[in-house]
From TrEMBL, chains A, B:
Residues 244-391 form the Peptidase M20 dimerisation domain. Pfam families: M20_dimer (PF07687), Peptidase_M20 (PF01546). GO terms for molecular function: metal ion binding; peptidase activity. The keyword Plastid does not apply. Residues 132-152 are annotated as: Disordered. The keyword Metal-binding applies. Keywords: Hydrolase, Metal-binding, Protease, Signal. Residues 1-18 form the signal peptide. InterPro entries: Cyt/Met_Dipeptidase (IPR051458), Peptidase_M20 (IPR002933), Peptidase_M20_dimer (IPR011650). This is Peptidase M20.
Length: 507, 507
């Protein structure tokens, strides 16, 4: 009996070195997995793309209900302008606490093209699978009450990982503490944004408007994936981000490619030539000055990078390509440089709808990632100067008849606002405490990353509130974030819940 | 009264120098415009894209009905393989005639993307407009019985011009003769193909199978637009045509452009670089040997080209671009060279659906137009060699895991069959008679063009039947052929009807 009991306890503990409070958290989660999944299904079933402001509001109200069910005082923080998805704010005061941690996640998601999702999936119809569907997973019904669910199962839906998993693990982490009568030593605040995927255009205004309410000692940002090894990760910064769209003009109406081909200029060719001029075959950006204003990494940051486990070969093989960009650098090294990515490119039609035409326009969307030292609008201007230097006339609006008549190469450039990169110093004491807290939840060494490749508006927190931020992601790395077939591994939800609870127990 | 009568007669004659028989043809048409339009509306309302074989068959049967209503003996000519849209054949014997003219048009249309059609239009919902909708035209209801209809009105629908206008004007031309008791001096045959826009993959088989039935002295091909000046046109050849699609591969699943941007290769960039390498900014193709095997124009052909009215400046202004391709050549000169056109290009999404991802694939469809001397598959091979020389591994199928692991640059190339160009000698006596016949229907000099820029499977007729072909188009040049918002100017239907009737009266 004694031996069996010890084995059962070990199983309960899993492989983590769970301390006593965390054991309670894990027990709570095991007992309530199915309820938590039901609630999460409801959360991800609400559409949350930027254009759908009604459903974004619906999402915000649903999150308020989630908070009220957990006894969290909540309010919506509105931007001065109407129609902006509100921030869902919440607060739990701890009598006698001198420090405050504010937990951030975002409830909006990237745009979706349902046609691109795998058969049997739809962006806002949460669907379970026994594993990743692009490997050996199979779609499976929602688990029956009492049915044990493997942590390797996935739930497929837009924002299942990015970033409703953040909202869910923060609130469920708090719930586990409260239900287990574990009292935090710090004040806890909650801040769930609704415009992150649009580039957080109203975040600065909201932060400035509610400065007093948002006072804190540290922002813990729950977004992005854990390390590809499955190891938990604490991240000290994020790249900045700014998008720009390019639209190249050809003939005013589509022309028969026989009757006019060789004579009427083809905008798809012009766009291809323009994009090709921007980057070489190693991904090196050829825009003048693109890498000029990068702040070098500190020796401590370089040392941290060197300690990050390198799984590049494994991931590359899994992703099925033969050669990464760069000239031998690792993934994490390359993420410390600014990037220029073609998010999408289109002119007329391909496949079954392709017709023998000279298209009228060709468009591309570029995504510029920024590192400390870069400025979003300065980076955009470098790209515009590059376009200009290639002989293009750049317009902000649809070209006029006069512009069409005058300029052989015409491109409409529409940059978005974007935001800059941010890095928190590695030696910030409270950040070091967060690393220790996360380490209590897992036997594997926590990966400490100076910056993540993805972007978060951390720069805005620093600028508006002079705030410190640290990012603690929970999603699996292979989550198809931003794309079709987005998913969360259920084990990552459960481990994320423990991570958030552990941080809330900071002394 | 007398003066009025003379004016009315002049109006009836229009500006053409109509001979007596043509006057009767015109009277018939004026009296039956509305009936003809009703029938044409029904014809263009039947979907006719290649994938929709059921409706292609429906179209063929509808055309047979049209022929039977006109007393034409008809049968369907099938290819040996099942599921191939049949040729609709018809025949009218003329007692004592020693010569036979066979009239060709095609009833299939280019693919459609209904989302790209203008508001109020749909590809298979014929819609009238008072003029071109991209200029001052307005959508207008079907004309009421007895309501006079301006020849400048347009009918919008897929294949309204390309090439159901050909089917309609040939059959209505014959109908006008029969109703006016005008007896042709030649035997007349009708041949309406159902796979032209797919590159006529079964035409050779059908021609060979029905060789005896299809015996003739001249094929009159009714397809393509009249000259941009509105002048009627007789064309002695067409470019050949072959399409090929390219698909470049990136990571197996779409990746977050932040977490992997700078490291995972972007297939949109690779495709842009590949396409950019194929053609310079003047449209000159940089594929090795692309222009090598072109048969030079004869002195007579060069002289004919010099006589073609040059409206390039006007069309360029109307189409809204500043500089045509080439180095100063005219449109008709450039059409005597092979071309490489990007029909369409796509990777991930743009616009509202654009997401911050590294796409998994990027595709393009190329359209190669050929001139005499070129061979379709030889031209395709030149492009493949070019791709190969740029370091790409070219595959015919989706790449295997081993290919993905081995080759940094991977492209799937899928060429279609295509066909070669053809040119009939300018001095062919029967062709000269056709020019004279067409000239009787119009006061403006008929434009004689050695080749059209567009393609027709004329080469196949020559190869299989040793047949002579001459092309007599009827559509307006600004018809959006192959694209969204395709339309026919009603006056072109009426003038086309007269053109076809005049050719049927050849002595």
């Amino acid at each position: 009996m004694k031996k069996l009991y010890a084995l059962a306890l070990l199983a309960l503990l899993g492989t983590g070195q769970a301390t006593d409070p965390l054991l309670k958290v894990r027990q709570f989660r095991r007992a309530h997995e199915q309820e938590l999944l039901r609630e999460f299904e409801q959360l991800v079933a609400i559409p949350n793309v930027a254009a759908d402001t009604a459903n974004l509001r619906h999402t915000a109200l649903f999150i308020q209900d989630m908070m009220r069910r957990r006894g969290i005082k909540t309010q919506l923080l509105a931007a001065p302008a109407a129609g902006v998805p509100p921030v869902v704010f919440g607060e739990v005061r701890t009598p006698g606490a001198t420090r405050t941690i504010i937990f951030y996640a975002h409830y909006d998601g990237q745009p979706v093209n349902p046609a691109q999702w795998r058969e049997g999936l739809a962006p806002f119809q949460p669907t379970y699978a026994t594993g990743p569907l692009d490997r050996d997973g199979k779609i499976t019904p929602r688990p029956a009450p009492g049915q044990p669910v493997s942590p390797d199962w996935r739930l497929y839906a837009r924002s299942a990982s990015d970033d409703k998993a953040g909202v869910m693990t923060i609130l469920a982490g708090y719930q586990a503490l409260a239900a287990s009568k574990l009292k935090p030593k710090v004040n806890i605040k909650f801040f769930f944004e609704g415009e992150e995927e649009r580039g957080s255009p109203h975040l600065a205004e909201i932060l400035s408007r509610y400065k007093a309410l948002l006072a804190s000692d540290l922002w813990v940002i729950c977004d992005g994936p854990v390390h590809q090894s499955g190891r938990k990760q604490v991240v000290f910064g994020a790249r900045g981000d700014v998008n720009m769209s390019l639209k190249v003009y050809g003939p005013r109406r589509p022309l028969h490619s026989g009757h006019y081909g060789n004579w009427a200029p083809n905008p798809a060719l012009a766009l291809a030539r323009l994009l090709a001029s921007m980057e070489d075959s190693t991904g090196r950006v050829r825009v003048a000055g693109f890498y000029d204003d990068v702040t070098p990494l500190t020796p401590a940051e370089k040392a941290a990078l060197a300690r990050v486990p390198n799984l590049d070969q494994t991931i590359r093989q899994e992703l099925g390509f033969a050669r990464p960009y760069g000239t031998g650098q690792s993934l994490v090294e390359l993420l410390n440089q600014p990037s220029l990515n073609i998010n999408g490119m289109q002119s007329a039609n391909v496949g079954a709808q392709a017709a023998n035409v000279i298209p009228t326009v060709a468009t591309a969307v570029l995504d510029l990632r920024l590192v400390p030292g870069n400025d979003a609008q300065r980076q955009v201007q470098k790209v515009i100067r590059h376009i200009d230097a290639r002989g293009y006339h750049v317009t902000a609006a649809e070209p006029t008849d006069a512009e069409r008549a005058q300029y052989p190469l015409l491109v409409r450039v529409q940059p978005e606002t974007g935001y800059n990169a941010q890095r928190t110093p590695l030696d910030l004491p409270m950040a070091q405490q967060v690393i220790k807290a996360v380490q209590t939840t897992t036997p594997s060494p926590v990966v400490v990353l100076p910056t993540m490749g993805g972007s978060l508006p951390l720069y805005v927190f620093e600028q508006q509130l002079n705030a410190h931020t640290i990012t603690v992601p929970v999603a699996n790395y292979d989550n198809n974030q931003h794309a079709e077939n987005e998913n969360i591994r259920l084990g990552n939800l459960w481990e994320g819940l423990e991570t958030m609870a552990a941080i809330m127990l900071l002394k």
